Amino acid sequence: MSERESKMKRKVAVAMSGGVDSSVCAALLKEKGYEVIGVTMQIWPGDKEKGRLDRHYTINVIDAAKRIADELGIPHYVLNLRDVFEKYVTANFCDEYRKGETPNPCIRCNKYIKFGALLKMANQLGADYLATGHYAKIEYNGKTGEYLLKKGADLDKDQSYFLYTMSQSQLKNILMPLGDYTKDEVRAMARDFNLPIVDREESQEICFIPTGGYPEFLKRCMPEAFKPGPILNTKGEILGEHKGVLFYTIGQRRGLGISSKTPLYVVAIDGEKNAVIVGTEDELYSDELKASEVNYITTEGLKKPARLRVRIRYRHKEAEAMVYPTTKNEVRIKFAQPQRAITPGQAAVFYDGNIVVGGGVIRRSTQKSPRRYLAISK
Q: Looking at the chain, which terminus has fewer C-beta neighbours within 10 angstroms, N or C?
């Protein structure tokens, strides 16, 4: 039993979605002797216009979580987080698309909802800890008196990228018991615990948008994004017309609707001018970026430039880079080798081995094409 588990605080609220990971998380903690309660977030508005999506969420998350809680013999609570989720996640999701950026709503959900509002509500229910089924590790450093965030044992499922916004006050009140296991081991434990979710297919969709509902959601919150506009080359010349900026992402080649002797890719999106900018594959690469809203896991952070490994999207292979702190909340990152399709709105997360040092939101890179286009468009 670890130092954290040996403390007198023994009541834990498990964030439950009805899936394998959160269900095994609850079962493991109950087996270890914790007083376990299940909590499920209700995040989708229930008005008539969005009622169909609310029913989708209720059936696939809330009802499933309740069945697992009943199976484990633990209390289950549904917590209404609709307003705070709308404020910090869905509104931001639309705002970022309006600017031509590609947001990562899971990161904001972890920061403001799961480890913000949900943790607070769990405390109000008498829980000492909030536990989640993330594949990541939280370790206490006795020398510094602070907590470290590390990659999970299953590197294929590691979710530390989504957790870089966590603070010390959050880390000390969070448990992630799956960090030492692989996904296969977790599925095996689900069978051992006789949980009825072993073969449930994992969702790859954004949680607040049901399958096939992506265009419908964005059209409702930002109809202007469906407005056609120009497709420009890096010289500012019009090559064609796009059907709406939200249909395009950095690095996209197919579906542009333009012909060229040389393959063209989306290299920038200008939300303000409603323009999609295309260029050659070579113009997709950049060796530098700037990130804002930077958070460091430890209070010391970075006081001077450091050679670290940086991930620019969840499935991106980490790349060696120098990270230069320019202000308290901003960094400049210089890669040893150019990286493909650095995308504003995504996160740049930096690691020292398996330890998460911190991360921030990518705001711009030095791809040649966006820089040249922006200079022309001023």
A: C
